[in-house]
Design goal:
The structure holds 2 protein chains of 2 kinds. Chain A is of the alpha+beta class. Chain A has 3 domains: 7-118, Butyryl-Coa Dehydrogenase, subunit A, domain 1, CATH 1.10.540.10; 121-207, Beta Barrel (Butyryl-CoA Dehydrogenase, subunit A, domain 2); 211-355, Up-down Bundle (Butyryl-CoA Dehydrogenase, subunit A, domain 3). Chain A has helices at residues 7-23, 26-32, 41-49, 68-80, 87-101, 104-115, 210-245, 257-286, 291-317, 328-338, 345-355, and strands spanning 120-123, 135-139, 142-151, 158-164, 167-172, 178-182, 192-200, 204-206, 247-248, 251-252. Chain A has a 4-stranded mixed beta sheet, with helices on one face. A 4-stranded antiparallel beta sheet of chain A has the order 2-3-7-6, with no helix packed on it. Chain A has a two-stranded antiparallel sheet with strand order 9-10. The model of chain A has no long low-confidence stretch (mean pLDDT 97). Classes of the chains: A alpha+beta, B alpha+beta. At the A-B interface, helix 7, strand 10, helix 8, helix 9 and helix 11 of A face helix 8 and helix 12 of B.
Chain lengths: 362, 397
């Protein structure tokens, strides 16, 4: 019985966190938010050298072949540092889907991801939420329609598109008949786009890959929960540090019980949240029959505690926490944007109930 | 990460399961159920097989095995699953015994530990006072020297099972001139000593539940000085061994409770529709399930830390706060899912599950307060876990 991170995992976490602190400090994040797409290709190449981009790519395709728990630790570190990267789409969701889809093309794309040369976006929102007449169809080998809130798409080379619950396509972002517009969200550290298809020809079509799509969503949800939890940790750390140095009424504010209790309530959610995340990520590889339920619960629960932490941490800072200069809003917005990226908490809990037979499947 | 217990432990689990299955039909399932002699015989048998008092040395009446946390977890799991009490969940075994092992004299250990473990002697804990709750060290019950005796005067409250206990482990002020924490002694006091008056304290749950609370009044109660545990004036330190123990021991079978709640929601109807079919109630259940899963796996993480001898750190300090609130919130949903019938109580007509959820709600609230209130827990988390400074002492007027 050993429910803990391994030495290797602790080392991965430490290496990556110090790399990010050095390479992408918050000043750099401020620069990246001004760009058309915040996902910096040079950073992606550097992450490839660390084995991060190919963390889930099999060793045969040049990846590290590690488990989702390892990818979740990376995701957590990226959330902690509010680093803009296409990690969620390119390194978690796409490799999971392509590994299930198989085939020579998939293998070469996986190798490209591991090498850091390729960046993928995913257009899968329509699997769980259809808005504004969105929806993609495949007619006579060509893509038509609209995908909204495509993740990590604007700076990507290729796009993984869900046509329906059983069918995936891979399409080049510079294809004729594909038009992409970035949709500005509150979160400048993660790019989302609208993609209009008017006869674009996909590079590959994978049919009958429903279980692969489901696995891709589970993996994405667990990794996204990790990103949110990392952001929560950073917000708690900043609130506690601020409460130790900020003085009012001739005392550091952290000596007031009201402020102490705000900090305690935040950490009392973060710590069990971390345990839930470890288990959910572990289940993905070791107990796959539990993974769909755990993926729903971990993302819904983490989103809920995060909304409270994002608010309370800002309140501990008082007025300065509300300014652009203090930087705290980068985490607040990362958390806010992530909440609905792969299904909001209400929808995820409905799905959790369906999975256990507590609700009729929609 | 490895969630298996391994072959040796699975063999141990089989042993425990067989033992429980063999004795379940003939022994008192819950210790409150049996007659005293039956209880003593059952506890003695459990000790003989090493399923109770497993790590207590043999010379003090235990089984004498080396401590092994996983064995403890397995025994708890198997007894719980079968709905059978393992050992005796009372303040004697859980608080006095560890205290005597750490601080008692050889004579005290030999005299009290064995009979306490076998249920031959029932103890109550004389700590809290009307004026000393969260600030326990401000207690005022005093013990003045008279020859070889102390003479105790004062009052205790929240004294569980004082109406039935033969003995009390009590904190009293023996050194009135010493500082707040330095003047306290930990004394073993027979409850049949003259001058002790026990008055039942009726709680909000109206007696449904496990514990009976009391107030105890002491008027010129004589106790030999030899009954002090540890040194005179060091009672605060002695008591803190077991206070730390109390905070760790407040856990609950939350997953089982959540499933019981789910079954209730499938059965109970509101406006002709099962509560489970209502998205509003169901969403609340799913929120609770995520918290239950989180605390379950948090428990596994804490267990792993303990197995490795690592400090639990701030992650360990949040357990009591979270588990107690979670229990209260589960009871709240159950009550709501029964609609207007959720308030029925005291075994009245139409009452569901013999008033379990209302009683559980009130007892959970009691546990949010007892053993260190939620607010004290938050102070501890902030100060010891996050390093925030203590509240400055108010300036003396």
């Amino acid at each position: 019985m050993d429910f803990a991170l391994s030495e290797d995992q602790l080392l991965l976490e430490e290496t990556l966190r110090s790399f990010l602190a050095d390479r992408v400090p918050i000043e750099r994040v401020r620069e990246l938010r001004e760009k058309a797409c915040p996902n910096d290709r040079a950073l992606w190449s550097a992450l490839a050298e660390l084995g991060i981009t190919g963390i889930l790519v099999p060793e045969a395709q040049g990846g590290s072949g590690l488990a989702l728990l390892d990818a979740a630790l990376v995701s957590q570190a990226l959330g902690h540092a509010v680093t803009p990267t296409p990690f969620l789409a390119s390194a978690v969701m796409v490799p999971t889907a392509l590994a299930a889809a198989g085939g020579g093309a998939s293998e070469s794309w996986l190798a490209g991801i591991a090498g850091g040369e390729l960046v993928f976006g995913v257009a899968v929102t329509e699997l769980f939420s259809v808005r504004e007449g969105a929806g993609v169809s495949l007619e006579a080998g060509a893509l038509h329609g609209k995908a909204m809130m495509a993740i990590d798409a604007c700076g990507a080379d290729l796009l993984l598109v869900a046509v329906d619950e059983d069918t995936l396509c891979v399409v080049k972002t510079d294809s004729t008949g594909l038009e992409m517009t970035r949709l500005t969200t509150v979160d400048a550290t993660r790019c989302t786009a609208e993609v209009l298809f008017d006869g674009a020809t996909p590079e590959a079509v994978f049919e009958g890959v429903g279980s692969g799509i489901a696995r891709m969503l589970d993996a994405g949800r667990i990794a996204l929960a990790a990103d949110i939890l990392g952001a929560c940790e950073a917000m708690v750390e900043q609130a506690v540090a601020y409460a130790k140095q900020r003085k009012q009424f001739d005392r550091v504010i952290g000596s007031f019980q009201a402020v102490k209790h705000m900090c305690s309530e935040m950490i009392a959610e973060v710590e069990p949240g971390r345990s839930l995340l470890w288990y959910a990520a572990h289940s993905f590889d070791a107990l796959p029959e539990e993974a769909p339920l755990m993926a729903c619960h971990v993302l819904a629960h983490t989103s809920e505690i995060a909304r409270e932490i994002a608010s309370v941490s800002t309140q501990v800072h008082g007025g300065i926490g509300w300014t652009d200069e203090q930087n705290l809003h980068f985490w607040f917005k990362r958390i806010g944007n992530a909440r609905h990226l792969l299904g909001g908490p209400e929808a995820l809990r409905q799905r959790a109930a369906e999975l256990q037979g507590f609700a009729a499947t929609a | 990460m490895d969630l298996e217990y391994g072959a040796r432990y699975e063999a141990f689990r089989t042993q425990v399961r067989d033992f429980v299955a063999e004795h379940r039909p003939t022994r008192p399932l819950r210790l409150a159920d049996g007659k005293r002699q039956e209880r003593i015989a059952w506890l003695s048998l459990q000790i003989e097989h090493g399923y109770w008092a497993r790590t207590i040395p043999r010379e003090y009446g235990g089984y004498g095995a080396e401590p092994d946390l996983l064995e403890t977890v397995i025994m708890d799991e198997e007894f719980n699953k079968a709905g059978v009490s393992r050992g005796m969940n009372a303040q004697g075994p859980s608080m006095l015994v560890p205290t005597l092992l750490s601080h008692g004299s050889e004579e005290q250990r030999r005299r009290w530990i064995g009979p306490t473990l076998r249920g031959e002697v029932l103890w109550c804990q004389g700590y809290s006072e009307p004026g000393a709750g969260s600030d326990l060290a401000s207690l005022q019950t005093r013990a003045t020297e008279d020859g070889d005796d102390f003479v105790i005067n004062g009052q205790k409250i929240w004294t569980t099972t004082a109406d039935r206990a033969e003995m009390c482990f009590i904190l009293v002020r023996t050194e009135p001139d010493a500082g707040k924490h330095a003047g306290i002694s930990y004394i073993l006091l027979p409850m049949d000593t003259s001058g002790i008056e026990v008055q039942p304290l009726r709680t909000m749950s109206g007696g449904i539940g496990e514990s009976s609370f009391n107030q105890v009044f002491f008027t010129d109660v004589r106790v030999p000085k030899a009954n002090v545990v540890g040194k005179r004036g060091e009672g605060w330190k002695v008591a803190n061994t077991t206070l730390a123990h109390e905070r760790n021991s407040l856990n609950a079978n939350a997953e089982g409770k959540l499933m019981r709640l789910a079954r209730l929601m499938e059965r109970e109807t509101l406006g002709g529709v099962p509560a489970m079919a209502s998205p509003i109630y169901r969403d609340r259940l799913m929120k609770l399930q995520a918290r239950v899963l989180s605390m379950k796996h948090h428990g596994m993480r804490m267990l792993t830390c303990s197995l490795k001898g690592e400090s639990l750190g701030v992650a360990g300090l949040v357990v009591k706060l979270q588990n107690c609130q979670l229990n209260f919130d589960m009871a709240a949903l159950a009550i709501d899912a029964m609609g207007e019938l959720g308030v029925l109580y005291d075994h009245t007509k139409y009452e569901r599950e013999r008033g379990y959820w209302q009683a559980h709600s009130m007892l959970s609230l009691g546990l949010i307060i007892g053993g260190g209130t939620a607010q004290i827990q938050k102070n501890i988390i902030a100060e010891r876990g996050l390093g925030l400074p203590r509240e400055p002492k108010p300036k003396q007027a």
